[in-house]
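Hey all, sorry for the wall of text incoming. These are the two entities for the joint prediction.
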Amino acid sequence: MFLRLKSGVSGLFLVKIQKVEGRWQFETWLKIHRKMPPTIKIMAKEITSREQDYSQWYIDIVQKANLADHSAVRCCMVIKPNGFAIWENIQAQLDRMFKETGHVNAYFPLFIPKSFLSREAQHVEGFAKECAVITHHRLMNAPDGSGVIVDPEAKLEEELIVRPTSETIIWDTYRTWINSYRDLPLLINQWANVVRWELRTRLFLRTTEFLWQEGHTAHASKEEAERETQTILDVYAKFAEEWMAMPVIKGVKTANERFAGAVETYCIEALMQDGKALQAGTSHFLGQNFAKAFDVKFSNKNNEQEYVWATSWGVSTRLVGGLIMTHSDDDGLVLPPKIAPTQVVIVPIPKPGAEIDEAAEKLMKELKAKGVRVKYDTDDQKRPGFKFAEHELLGIPVRLGIGARDLAEGKVEVARRDTKEKSNQPLEGIANYIIDLLDEIQQHLFDRSKAYRTEHITSVDTFDDLREVLDGKGGFVSAHWDGTTETELKIKDLTKATIRCIPVDNELENGKCVLTGQPSKQRVLFAKAY
RNA sequence: CGGGGUGUAGCGCAGUCCGGUUAGCGUGCCUGCUUUGGGAGCAGGAGGUCCCAGGUUCGAAUCCUGGUACCCCGACCA
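and here's what came out:
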């Protein structure tokens, strides 16, 4: 007879049934008609566990929660609606914070004349290897009819670079905008895409094209520019911790890790669940490097010409990757309520119906009135169990289940995504309960990831210990370093870890460099990084 | 840029070594019925330039040559 098994094996089975010692027995011979996929049926949305393969887990989350896809273009991603909604929330809040601190938005071109990039020596050195270059401006039909080719007649006189960052084009523009100290400070931000030709992709964390904001400010004094750098660093840290519930360490980069063209680079560093660090944002004090390269001077109060002082700062869609790797679990995405596109989902049990719809609509109205982003799942095809799993995968912080039983009791089932706890709550006053619960979840996510980070900052005093922690437990390792790039590179070579930063609130402490034994005044944080 | 892998239905894959009916399986999709408090069942149905080009052959998803695309790991990277 022909059988089809759940495992995906189908074919011809021979079954022999016989009576042995009064009992029926049967043997089967399987003659596989055709070799079928050997895999047992895998649940459509199965996610690789973090323990098994953290990298694959990340890929699964991004794909199965519909955050992003690989595109037809090498190393570029398509950000899908679910992923973009997260980015929009990040954008919206940061934009508010930038404006509260006096910044305005503008937009500069995607293309940069090649010659601009080379004006600042370190800058060009830092970016030259990853620039996309525009050489022609026209296509034509191939003479042999094989399709479209680049028209050799349409070669650009000066090639254009697709911006890897906009300092050069912006400072070239600022030259014409700034004449007097009265024109300063100039506090401008832009939301844009940039291109850095990468050789390897990790969705959200590293792609050739990505979205970001880049702030570029001009100041009359060094002190003011330095203060601006700090202001933004604080904005970033506050945003990361209070909105993304992602604890960060504010620090300063070593010379080796500094932005190409900066005098000083400050950063916020976060720690992912696998013990690797993620640079989540940077704020640069550029000194007068770009002002000198692009000849941007202003007349001070004494009518003397001075070069302008500059900063630049940015965070990117990489934050979405950081968000995933800070909170999510083996069941899917976990989002902090403040960033979650949908904060509450209502699931009718078993399916939509007049009575349940009415209760749900009322509930939604109450929640929306209090500013909660809520959705009612009206799909009448999918069963509740499927929806539960689906909403968990998508990371919706709170799920409410309403069925006839609940309505009879005047209750609702409340399930929180972060702890997977379920409880029955009275419908009366539920909106306030939810508001408090969302706050509690937000706080819990932050506390949980901060506790993880605290456990994963390890102080060591020998190189062997440094290596052992990096290879085993992971996380940040606090150790003495002699301050030289040479030692930093040697340690990187030996351990694959880099100095993530020197924390800004670092305590001074005399010690000896873990590698060279040279005197050191403070500890720095080492980690393997994304 | 080095190493590895993969291009076959929307998605995940088998078939390729050893050429041969009408190219299959799971899932998803459509229709209907029954279900529904943690990923439903049955029945029927739609859906394919087998990555591209050339070659070998009576015959190519399968063999040969060339090309191309993407992924993974590493190196590189503010």
